[in-house]
Structure formats: C-alpha cells, structure tokens
Amino acid sequence: MDQKLKVGIIGATGMVGQRFITLLHDHPWFEVVCLAASPRSAGKTYREALDGRWSQEMELPKEVASMVVLDAMEVEKVAGQVDFVFCAVDMDKEATKKLEEDYAKAEVPVVSNNSAHRWTKDVPMVIPEINNGHIEIIASQKKRLGTSRGFIAVKPNCSIQSYVPALSALQSFGPKEVLACTYQAISGAGKTFETWPEMLDNVIPYIGGEEEKSEKEPLKIWGSIQGDEIVPATLPVISAQCIRVPVADGHMAAVFVEFEEKPSKEEILKAWAEFAGRPQELGLPSAPRQFLRYMEEDNRPQTRLDRNYEKGMGITVGRLREDHIYDYKFVCLSHNTVRGAAGGAVLIAELLTAEGHIGAK
C-alpha cells in the first residue's frame, strides 16, 4: 500500500481503545490520526484524558499521547479527518447503534467492537478466517443506509473466539450438539486486578448476557446470505455456561461436541492443522500464519503460557479425547482483547481493505 489509510478510534480511552492503539502502532496499512471519546474527555490530550488509566504493557506512544481527544458525538468533525473508524464505545445499545449508523451515513466505514449491530440483518459479523464471504452483504446495507462508502461491520463476542474456530474446522463432519463452558478473563469486563480487587482469589459463575451471545452468535457466523440479509444456521445446537475467573487476559473454553458423522481423532487433528482462511491466503498483516495449533501436552493450553500465540491472534487447542456422553471433548484458548476484541477488528479492517470495501477518500 503506497499511502496509509487514516484511522480514527471512537472510544479511545477504554481498555479496547487502548489495545487498538498498541496494535495500530507502526501498522503497515493504517495510521491513527484521530481519537474520540466522551464529552468529558474532549479537549484534553490523550494522556490527560487517560488520567493514569493506561493499562497496556507497551509504553504509551508519544505521538498518540499528545493528540487532542475529540467528542465522539461530533460525527462530522471526526468524519472529515479519517478514511474509516474503529468503534469501541461504552454506551447503551441503542445509543451505540445510532452513533455507528451516524458515522456510516457520514460516509465513514465503521469496524465495530460493540454488540449493538451484531443482529442487524445486513451487518456482517465476521471472523475473517471463517465467514469472510459475509462482507458481500455490505452492498445491501449501503442501499438501505443510502451511502456510497459508509457501512458497518462488526466483530463477534470475545467469548466465542476460542471454540468457534475449532468447530468451524470440523464443519464437514456435521457438528449437531455442542456444550461449551467458558472461563473468561477480567479484561473482558474492562477491568484489571487494581480496579477489580474482588476478583482476587475468586470465581463468579455469571456474566450478564454472555451465555445467550455464546449460544446464538456462532449460528450467524455459520449462516448464509439470502437476499438482503444474513440468515443464521440452525445447527449445531449450543448450550453455554460463562464463568469469570481471576485471570488478567485469555478466555478458555471446555467444549463437548456430538457429530452427525463421528470423525476419527486423526481426522480432527488433520482438520485443525490444515485450517486456514482468506486472511492467510491474502497474507494480511495481522493474520496468524497457523490459525489453530494443537498442543499434545496433557496440561496445555495454559492461559499464561499460550494466550499470546501468534501475537495473540492464534487459537490453541488441547486435550482432545473421546467422551462417554458426547463424541469428543477438548479445551481451547484465545486472547480476548487481541483476537477477541481489537485484534479481531483490525483483521476485519485489513480484509475489508484488501477486498476493496475500505479505501482512501
């Protein structure tokens, strides 16, 4: 790419917004030129707006620290500076939905980390290795919105990023029933141990709204475009439990699956080893070279050791064995704020750019 695209981050002061900054620092295709947040942050430098809340391991980049934060509600002002935006705001669902549509109608493509538009029928919810074809629905969405270049694409919930790829590699065997129990890091709630000391030495067996998302969102990802909408798949039937655990980063899932045609263990391992998608084919900058890695050790994957596999963009799987109720069971792990949040959105933006849906104004 001859010239980098100009990027804005809406919701820049939150944990996911901060992660976007670390991932876009020195990105070969994208340059952060605009930061926006709530009115209380507007007018301050980014460092001042953070007020000591920078939570990333990487030092806050100097060029970003001195940027003056804009009011995210001043859509036209932000839109005039960027080619597209990432959105990671902390607002209620209806307000988020309106804000993202306002940016799209201002002819700015929106790649969203939020849940507001995940069930809008003409908005693609994408894991790029799995359902890259869903981005073709953007033409129908533009027609509805009355835009020429503005649209919305969303990333699915972080809790499904570990087990949906592993199951997607096995679609040819017809998974029909899935039980998934997720063990989710506190950063998924936008927290650290400093801001959430109650999580030390504690497990909370409830995360609001998470189980419904974990059961329903995979079906949209495995669905198909029919006319002007994406119609969810009907199988597999998924039952989920989502548990908050005292881990900084990394969502783990214990998965049990029943197939229409039970594969051998060797067939499953081969399918995982060979699984790749459009990002690998295109060689996108953030794409993991090996999307799924199976670990032979009985005690792997482990969150602390394996969450950063492929810079946090890959999925690790282990403990595959037959089950006496279901056909098989296994464990898988993803980095929830990289692959599951900002990194997944960056990969979507790279895919949209490579496929001609995002470009310079």
UniProtKB/TrEMBL annotation:
Record-listed E.C. numbers: 1.2.1.11
Keyword entries, A-Z: NADP, Oxidoreductase
Catalytic residues in the record: 158, 251
GO molecular function term, any single one: protein dimerization activity
Domain Semialdehyde dehydrogenase NAD-binding: 6-138
GO biological process, one term: threonine biosynthetic process
Tree of life domain: Bacteria
Any Pfam family the entry gives: Semialdhyde_dhC
Top-level class of the enzyme under EC nomenclature: oxidoreductase
Bilayer-crossing regions: none
PANTHER family in the cross-refs: ASPARTATE-SEMIALDEHYDE DEHYDROGENASE
NCBIfam families: asd_EA, PRK08664.1
Family: Belongs to the aspartate-semialdehyde dehydrogenase family.
Protein name in UniProt: Aspartate-semialdehyde dehydrogenase
Organism: Anaerotalea alkaliphila
Name of the gene encoding the protein in the UniProt record: asd
